[in-house]
Amino acid sequence: MTDLAQRRNEALASRTKGAILRATIAVIAKHSLSGTTVQLVAEAAKVAPGTVILHFQKKDALLLSALEQIAVEFEAARRAAVEAAGDDPVRALNAIIDVSLDPKVCDPANVAVWYAFWGEAKARKLYLERIGSYDTVCQDGLDRLFAEIIRRGGYRHLNAEALAMGFSGLLEWQWQEILVSGRNFDRDAAKQTARAYLASIFPQEFAPD
Asked: What's the pLDDT score for residue 11?
């Protein structure tokens, strides 16, 4: 096989694998983890069931791969947003709000997959083993951002960890609303709510324009 032919085969395999993962996310969102089958995924991806098995070997690996893709995409978007903010923690928190409510990152299907894994004990254990580190990194990053704003503003009476946890919980609640409202979820209003939370704590730093 020539190098060109090999590259074409690799590109085709990558596209097929991507299509299968996107189909898996859609199927989980519609049928839950336990209701997801290789047959349903194959039909949604428009491939043969054997093609799904060829790429992922077994159902559990397929389900985890779908979750990992969502987690990696979210973490990459979050990291890029924070890095773009430089050393400005206020800008970084505003960027995190935008990323966390970006329809490309947290559309209803993606959010449904997150909660599907949390909703089943076995799946939740796998989630914590494979994806839990992303949650830890994200929360640690929030702790540092709040601590830096507190330091710069001289807000010695405030607790960074508690505030970061409240902020994280607010965004989590917004994700639950996405799950309930679907495409009707008002993302602009959700962003305003998150920024109002920050403004209630740091009125100078997050005062409305």
From this structure: 66
